[in-house]
Amino acid sequence: MGVLSEGLTQVLIPVAALIGLGFALLQWYLVSKVRVSGHSGGHKSYKDSLIEGDFEEGVDSLEVSAKCAEIQNAISVGATSFLFTEYRYLGIFTGVFGVIIFLFLGSVKGFSTKSEPCTYNTGNICKPALANALFSTIAFITAFRSGAVMGFLLAANGLLVLWVTINLFKLYYGDDWEGLYESITGYGLGGSSMALFGRVGGGIYTKAADVGADLVGKVEKNIPEDDPRNPAVIADNVGDNVGDIAGMGSDLFGSYAESSCAALFVASISSFGVSHDYTAMSYPLIISSMGIVVCLLTTLFATDIFEVKNVSEIEPSLKRQLLISTVLMTAGIATVNFFALPSEFTLFNFGTDKVVKNWHLFFCVAIGLWAGLAIGYTTEYYTSNAYSPVRDVADSCRTGAATNVIFGLALGYKSVIIPIFSIAIAIYVSFSLAAMYGVSVAALGMLSTIATGLAIDAYGPISDNAGGIAEMAGMSHEIRERTDALDAAGNTTAAIGKGFAIGSAALVSLALFGAFVSRAGIKTVDVLTPKVFIGLIVGAMLPYWFSAMTMKSVGSAALKMVEEVRRQFNTIPGLMEGTAKPDYATCVKISTDASLREMIPPGALVMLTPLIAGTFFGVETLAGVLAGSLVSGVQVAISASNTGGAWDNAKKYIEAGVNEHAKALGPKGSDAHKAAVIGDTIGDPLKDTSGPSLNILIKLMAVESLVFAPFFATHGGIIFKWL
Predict the structure, then answer these.
(1) pTM, full prediction
(2) Which secondary structure element, helix H or strand E, spans residue 347, and what is its range?
(3) pLDDT single digits (tens) 119-139
(4) DSSP 447-464
(5) Which of 98, 220, 530, 583 places its Cα 20 to 30 Å from the Cα of 407?
(6) Coil, strand or helix: which one is 705?
């Protein structure tokens, strides 16, 4: 037993979560008090603005202030309306899929209400399979409701809801920890299901509007980005909220839920569960609790100790937060290991017990944490216009869009190398030290600084919205230059966030894969057997099929948006001259309708694949599908996200004209700039829809397979049974 008692563990986890929630609400309150005002009297000594100078320079009149408030309200209403509609549809999905979970898992033992001998803790009696079906369904619905939040609120809320769910389920399960934590896997499935539709739906919404606004506004009409004359500009800014904020938040919540559930399940069938060592069992939750505290301290470093004074300090400051949180979390992991874990214990390792020491788990979590930092810094190198890769892409625009596309694709493929080696090293070390449990906590280590990662990721769309509001309200050129600088830094930090999400998805998926193999009773996964190999090939194909569906969805929605924007420019007198207002609402409706309609086919592909493969072809073939999709999906996701990010920042590099090279390629409206805009437009669905959604594909199929593993093991393989 560790030094930390069960009673203290039961206190510390919710306290850390409540601290995170309180801090999130405090930050929300402070931000909500910020107002755009034309009155600067009494504020001349105000020094908290990002860049030193007159407070709110460029806000010249009450008219501009009122216009800002009107635009901000329109964006907020549009985002809220879309999310409300989306979650209403997803609520129906939750109910239907919840019934499927109950029926499939309940049928494993013929809906028997009798207790059964435990599968792993031999000699003990576990609760009936029907109870596991019911509680897995409840956990699925609980997690679905938790997936719609962000930042500290996400990290704290996810932890608190999981802790409460475990303790409520414990009232029924008692000492049956095997059944308890089998049921908790439904929590991971719910979180990932929410993430899939949030990412795909939000991604289609934002990119349909973005592509439509850019192609007509910038390329055809040669007007600035976010120009109020552009009918798609409100829809574009709404998309930043529903795609990049809500979508990314639900994505990383899914990763957090799945990595926690995978670790808890493996621990429950190891010595932690057998000996009922609650503190050691709660090790994943304690790590997450420590992460909240560390991220809170990191935020204080960024806002109160190392204040940003000028534009050049923005990106280094954001990178510094990653490094500070990683260093502090390393110390935090060592502390948790000393107090929460016994000096030696055994972990389940595919039918055998592996003896592990507590310092082994320290290295497992730490290597996941530092692998995340390596992926983040590599992503920053390949997507920031401060380095040569993006500048080379910008330079290729001199000869047109074709060379820009070629250079961008090459950059994306090359950017895969270091992240894959980082993930491979993390997998090898963590598995060697602590089997699949080690891989699970390595994923948790990568996600332990999730609050800081999400704050950095959200920086991009927030800055983008700020720039849009400034442009539409007619603020001064200096204000727009500042928001463009913030936006360029934000694009890089958003790419870093996507890198973390993809890297953690690889580790989480492998951990879930191991848990699935264990729960399905598979002794070995032999790729030389036909059943496994056909699954491997099909699984490797799925990311391409999924990407094709999401890319075409964005293209179809963007086509309608382009046609509508062109129609308004051609039929509304005075629109181009600025004497008439565009019809923003129609463009918002096009994005909303398209995203809600087009998110269904890719979602169905992901949700139905494990059910079909497991039911008709069996657990061995499904294992091949999961392995193939993991290996293929990670590569495609990294290259797609980084290619799109590089194209975006190459365009901004030309627009900003920060040096002689950039000035030679510009200014806005030049042939090189138009080529860069085309590359950016192609990259939009890659970096904000298909790429980020792929990590959900590999996670969701794995956790769904884990939840339904008892059904597949009992009733699966119908086709092979006939042959």
Answers:
(1) 0.84
(2) strand 344-349
(3) 766 677 777 877 878 888 887
(4) HTTHHHHHHHHHHHHHHH
(5) 220
(6) helix
Burial of 355 (0-12, 13-18, 19+ CB in 10 A): exposed
Distance from C-alpha of 231 to C-alpha of 562, rounded to nearest angstrom:
10
- Per-residue pLDDT of 458-496, as tens digits, reads 777 777 777 788 778 777 777 777 777 777 777 667 777
Name the strand (E) or helix (H) holding 353.
strand 352-357
Q: What is the DSSP letter of 34?
A: -
Is the alpha carbon torsion for 5, 8, 10, 13 positive or negative? negative
Instruction: Provide the pLDDT for residue 19.
Output: 85
CA angle 473, 475, 479 (to 5 degrees): 130
- Whether residue 59 is predicted with pLDDT greater than 80 in this model: the reply is no
DSSP code at position 312: G
- Give the CA distances from residue 63 to residues 54, 70, 482, 576, 630, in Å, rounded to whole numbers and listed in that order: 19, 10, 21, 21, 54
Contacts of 587 (CB under 8 A, 6+ apart): 209, 212, 231, 232, 234, 235, 561, 564, 565
CA dihedral 303, 658, 409, 463 (to 10 degrees): 30
Q: How far apart are CA 452 and CA 449, in angstroms?
A: 6
Position 36 confidence tier, pLDDT thresholds 50, 70, 90: low
Q: Express each pLDDT in 338-375 by its tens digit.
A: 888 888 888 877 777 888 898 999 999 999 999 988 98
Cβ-contact 151, 321 below 8 angstroms: no
Q: 463 Cβ partners below 8 Å, 6+ apart?
A: 483, 486, 487, 489, 490
Residue 564: C-alpha distances to residues 59, 98, 209, 232, 590 (Å): 32, 39, 11, 9, 9
Residue of 148, 146, 142, 145 lying closest to 249 (CA atoms):
148
